[in-house]
Amino acid sequence: MKKTKNKRLRILFATFSPYRNGKRESTNGNVEPMVKYFGPRVSNFILLDQPHTGSDEIIPHVEVYKSRKRKKAYILNMWYLRPLYWVLGRIRTTDDDTNLLFKIRDILSVLAVRIQEGGYFDVFIGFESVNALAGIILKKVGLVKTVVYYVSDYSPVRYQNSMFNFFYVLLDRICCYWSDYIWDVSRAMHPARIEAGLIANKSAPVVHVPNGLEKRFIRHISEKHRIPHSLVFMGTLGIENGPDIAVASLPLVLKKIPDVTLHIIGKGDKDLERLKRLAMQANLENQIIFDGYIKDTDRMFATIRRFALALAPYRKIKNSVRWYGDSLKLRAYTAAGVPVIVSSVPPLGRELADIGAAIVAEDSAEGFAREIIRVFNDERAYSGLVKSAVEYGKHQAWERTYSQAMKEMPVL
After folding, report:
1. Using CA atoms, how far apart are residues 199 and 193, in angstroms rounded to an integer?
2. Residue 395: helix, strand or coil by DSSP?
3. In whole angstroms, what is the distance from residue 361 CA to residue 349 CA?
4. Are residues 82 and 203 part of one domain?
5. CATH number at residue 270
6. Which of 40, 170, 293, 352 lies deepest, with the highest CB count within 10 Å?
7. Does residue 412 sit within a domain?
8. pTM score, whole prediction
């Protein structure tokens, strides 16, 4: 889509983020990239950011951008929303993803933004199904032209509670049928919907909109400047992500690669203590370095670039969203030019393996150790993996993601 055509658009983007101490955290990483991409390109870009249920605040935030600049920012503290906020402030829920009142808040906040800002929206982008549903409502009453359903996670069996899961799948299906476009972060999502019962020819067209990174993070260093035989695991440290497999594989690798080291980057006090105990029990205190959580993203990427090989040993857990979703971990590794040993769980891992930037291993200590040893003992194969990872990583910028998405939406 040509830039001059984009300039005439008025876009409302409804999403959610965790908030701490009055500030938006970066867990939902598409907020700033959306603002940076669309702000300079459209006549009016409005961001509605709803605090996630785990936040220390409840009231949604609004930011209005015109001609590259933020013109105003405010919270949706209208009198007709305050009774709901009062109730939400006193709720203690056991499942912060499924609280009905927060879903009601999200729908009402979209309608409230329309009341406050007025006018007609050319494009409404709703992150996840509740926000997309609100956009569909606005379209039905003639206030929106095009609705985009933006999806970051999907699983046909997302919740163990059958009632929650029924409504989750139903809401997703409604949004697929009544939106104008679906932005899926992974190509595996829509086939899973169809297998679960979605009628393909009734669905809106799907646009692949993978997660991205800021351009400044996409850099690599030469092989000779990396720590020889070094491994890195980066990310949350829950068992489902496989850090235990990474730790358990190390004694097997040491038998063949005596100078191998494993660096673990991530947070989670209980998980971190569990992994440290495993390392101690295996006498690996000198071979495993716990770098902790690196909050500064520039420093985190500078750290990752130093390592020779990255690990992503996702566990094979039935109905996990990781079978269908994108993996920002893998995108970060390749952006740093580091090839990956990955389990067969994430679709992106299989994609990287197909182009020679990763190797798929069994999700076991033996499976990962076998592939690590094979790669480190074959310099030519390792160099080929690095070359492919660097080439793939060059194309991970958010700007490319959204530019490509807009080109695939000719109705605009």
Report:
1. 9
2. coil
3. 10
4. yes
5. 3.40.50.2000
6. 352
7. no
8. 0.91
